[in-house]
Structures are given as C-alpha cells and as structure tokens.
Amino acid sequence: MTQNDLPDKPNGDVERHSGISDSDQSPFVSLVRQDFTGPLPHPSILAGYNQVLPGSAERILVMAEKQLDHRINTESFIAHEQMKQSSRGQHYALLLLQFQRLLP
Fold first, then answer.
1. How many CB atoms lie within 10 A of CB 35?
2. Extents of the domains making up the chain
3. How would you write the pLDDT of the chain (104 residues) with one tens digit per residue?
4. Which residues, including other chains, have CB under 8 Å from residue 68's CB and lie 6 or more apart?
5. pTM here?
6. Helix or strand run (H / E) with residue 63
7. Distance in angstroms (rounded) separating the CA atoms of residues 20 and 14
C-alpha cells in the first residue's frame, strides 16, 4: 500500500464518531496488543468478574491457592515415593549380589 492508495479525506462517519479533526488524521494506524500469561486472570479481568458477581475475585484467588497447595503436596509425595523406590532397588540389587556369591 502506498500513500496514493489512501483516501485524501477520511470518511465522514469516522470523523464524526472518532472526534478527530481533519488536521489530526494521519495515514498510519496504531494497534495495541496486550498479552498476559499466568495462573490467574489479568487484574482487570478479575475486576470484571467482581462487577458481575461481587466476591467472585476472592473465590478465584482461593481456588488458585488450593490448586497450588494440592500441586505442592502431590509433587512432594511423588518425589518421596521415587526416593523410596530408588532406595528399594539398590537394596534388592545388593541382596541379589550377595545371593549370587553364595551360589556355586
């Protein structure tokens, strides 16, 4: 797209609704994109939940805290069980080596 492809004057509807005068118009468009990642919604989204249903933001935070506690407990249990399994395997290997020496 070149400068010649753009209209000389903006559409009247755009001018009327945007509140921008002819002198403020430019051939450039500005786009804004926001990304948010994380276990919780963006604070503005949480505020929206709270407007629709008062107290819902608090409930969402409590739910996230419970999920975090559950995940920590589960990972701790798995790590403990893996250590027990590894230790048990080493003991069985030692026993097998000892029995192998006793056999003719």
1. 5
2. 3-102
3. 455 554 555 454 444 455 555 566 667 888 888 787 888 888 889 999 999 999 999 999 999 999 999 999 999 999 999 999 999 999 999 999 888 888 77
4. 39
5. 0.54
6. helix 56-102
7. 8
